Each structure stands twice: as C-alpha cells, then as structure tokens.
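User: My notes are a mess, but here's the protein and flavin-adenine dinucleotide's SMILES. Can you give me a structure?
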Amino acid sequence: MKSDPFWWEDAGRPDGPSAEDLPSEVDVLIVGAGLTGLTAARTLARAGKAVLALDAMQPGEGASSRNGGMIGGGHRLAFETMRARFGHDTALGLLREAHLDSGTFVKSLIDAENIDCDYRESGRFRGLWRDDEYARAARDLERLQQLIPLEAEMLPRARQHEEIASELYRGGTVFFRHGGLNPAKWVGGILQRALAAGALVQGNTPVTAVERDASAFRVDTPRGMLRAGAVLAATNGYTPAQLASLKRRIVPIPSFIVTTEPLGNDLVRQLFPHGRMIVESRDRHCYYRPSPDGERIVFGARAAMFDAPESLVLRQMRGLLRQVFPQLGEIDFSHSWRGFTGFSFDFLPNVGKIEGIWHAMGYSGSGNAMAPWLGHKAALQILGDPEGETAFSRTDFPLRWWHRGRPWFLPFADVTFRLRDAWNNSRRVTG
Ligand SMILES: Cc1cc2nc3c(=O)[nH]c(=O)nc-3n(C[C@H](O)[C@H](O)[C@H](O)COP(=O)(O)OP(=O)(O)OC[C@H]3O[C@@H](n4cnc5c(N)ncnc54)[C@H](O)[C@@H]3O)c2cc1C
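Assistant: No problem, the inputs look usable. Here's the predicted complex:
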C-alpha cells in the first residue's frame, strides 16, 4: 500500500523551484507555501510587491495537497452562537464569506487562471447521525436561507438512497453548490500562477527565526538571513515553535485518508448516485467521495486525534468504511496517508496581526475554499487595500492557558471523543 497521497499520482509529487539564491531583502516574506501562502503570494506579486514564500517541505506538501478535495463553505458554529459572540453584522459576514464569497472567489480563480484541477460542482450530502438531529438541522437550514441565498435542501431518511447507497444516516442536507477537486492539482495550479505573477517560491527552506528590529524583520533560514518589510505566517496545522504566539492558538489535529483499489465506475455510481461529496454529523467525522475518475472511493476520517500508528489507523478505517457500505465486504486499500489540520479554539479561521506578524490560519478542517480566500484577504490587508476587510478579522483567535504549543492533551481528547461517540451511538434509535 502506498503512503503518498493518491492525488500525487495524477498531479505529480509537490515540487517547486528550490535552487535560486535567496534575495537579501523582500517586501513580504511568507512562511508556508500551501493554499494560503501561495494565494497571498500571487495577490502581492500582482500588486508589484517583491514577495518570497518559503516552505519547510515542498510548496503544497502540507495539508493543501493531501486533503479530501472537498470544496464548499460552512461553519461548525450555528449562526445564533456566532451572533451572541460577535454581533449580528459580523456573524452575517462570517456566514456570507464561508458559504458564498469564498466559493465565488475560488471558482473565479479556477476560471480566470484556467487551473486544471478536476473541479466539479458535484454538491455535498451531510448525513445526520441521530434521528433527533433532523428537526434541528431543518430549522438551522431554514434560518440560514432567511439570511443568505444558500442552495440547499433537507433530504429525509426515506429518500436518502437518492444520494448514497447506505442506511447509516437519518437523512441529511444536500448542498448543491459544493464540489470536489484534486487538491494537489489545485495547489499546484496556484503555485504556477503565483510564479507567473512574479512571486519567488522556495521549498526545502524552513524559516528558523523571525525577529523584529526598528525598520524591518530579520528572517533566518538554513540558507542564510534576509530582511522583510512584512511577514505573513501561513502555516496552519504545521505552525512551528518559532511562531510561538500563533502555535499556542492552533491545535494540529491529524486527519487520515485511504483510497480503495479501483471498484469500477458502475459500482461507484451505485454507491454515490450523483457523485456527491459526503460528510456526516458525528464526531468521528467520516468524509468520503468518488475519485475524480469515478473508479474508487476516497475515504477520510478522524480515526484518531493524535498521530496514531498506521496499523491502528487502517483497522479504524476498514471498520468505518464497512459501517457505511457493508455491502462491499472486505475492500483493499491502495493508498493511505495523513496530514495535519489546524483547529482554532473557536473553530473559526482568523486573519490579522499578532506581535507584528500577519497570519491567516485556523481553518479547522475546511480550507480548500477558505485558505485561498483568506490568504488573498491577508495579502490585501498587507497592501493596505480596503478590500482586505473580512469578518474573519473581527473574531477572537483565542488562547487557552493550558496550550503552550505542544498539544499534550490530544490523546485525552481522543478518549473523550470515543466516549462521546459511544454515547451518541447509544442514543441512535435503531430500525
Ligand atoms: C487529511 C486532510 C483532509 C482534509 N480535507 C479537506 C477537505 O476535503 N476540504 C477542505 O476544504 N479542507 C480539507 N482539509 C483542510 C485543508 O487541507 C487545509 O485547511 C488547507 O490546506 C490549509 O492550507 P494552508 O496553506 O493554510 O496550510 P498547509 O497546506 O498545511 O501549509 C502549511 C505549510 O507551512 C509549512 N511550514 C511549517 N513550518 C514552516 C517553517 N518553519 N518554514 C517554512 N514553512 C513552514 C509546511 O511545510 C506546510 O507546507 C483537510 C486537511 C487534511 C490534513
């Protein structure tokens, strides 16, 4: 079984220029060259700035080329919760940007830049785990549709087979404008457009220190030191110890994905009649979809909250896939890989400046649209452009006194989630 992401087979391993000499001075230095950093680099270069994006691995090799390839917005928080916390206008802005603006932005980027990334507006089905969730989900959707023009509808359990050949869920919600893509091609396309716009991008070059003096930042790398007028941290779930204030605000939670051996187009179409992306409401949070060629299932889950051994992950993934599609029997996997998501403590991304360093991060597991959108917004804020305004600069990006940077608590959180899973399972009405 291959341990590289399935996506790299078609897109090639993440690769970028890495032989050039580093400049001694730039206007903006970006730490991290994934969807956030590369979109910001493109926007800044197009505005005429001297911009350099450095990545400790290859550009795109973090979460951006290893994710599930599902694209489309949403929040983990209900509107009323966000309104109570941030006020009506900000809460509405958060909704609009996550559900509408970010999607419009990425679609126009794909079109305008002609990025071939197997994008398809397939729609997404969110399956509900418990019967008692249905009425609440229907109320939430109705409320959302009063606030924003969201193309979605509830699907009762009796009609669930229209979307998925599984009895596992208790009905759910269909989001018609969500879609799927090959994430390695997506981030690779943005890399090429950032380079074409004049940005410098270098892989295998970790930033080892960032220090501020009177007029600029001093940035250290193993390839030498350089000076930058501004620094943008775009490291999300890979945020390093050197960016201590940001690392304390982000919890790096691993997510695991497998791909089945080819099952054939006919079988995959029977399982996913409209080819939709599938997510679910339970904490274990499986997310799965047909591969772009319609031959396989790409199946992701939070199989563990920590960087678990592969044997444990495979056991979990087999069990979860069998739970969804028991009719498949024993299925062989062709690929199994993992990556780090970056969760904030309020489950909301944030754009802003802390101790002089700009940041855009905290996508909490959903960054294919939000990371480019907020990378672009961060770049506009650096440029002083009023278009950089975003509701995601008006949220908190909170700290917790017990998180000093090393996520020691994740194995304990794993146990809590397992207990919650068991509790939720026991509350499922069977039949
Ligand atoms: C397994 C998995 C499945 C997911 N599925 C989905 C999905 O289906 N849909 C969706 O919308 N989102 C999904 N996500 C989330 C999404 O991939 C991320 O939110 C998004 O890619 C974040 O992009 P980014 O550019 O901010 O961070 P990343 O792509 O993670 O890039 C951060 C980069 O920072 C670099 N870095 C770290 N330290 C340094 C340093 N000191 N110097 C230089 N560089 C450094 C790293 O090498 C890394 O390349 C998933 C994530 C994972 C891990």
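The radius of gyration is 21 Å.
User: Great, I'll file this with my notes.
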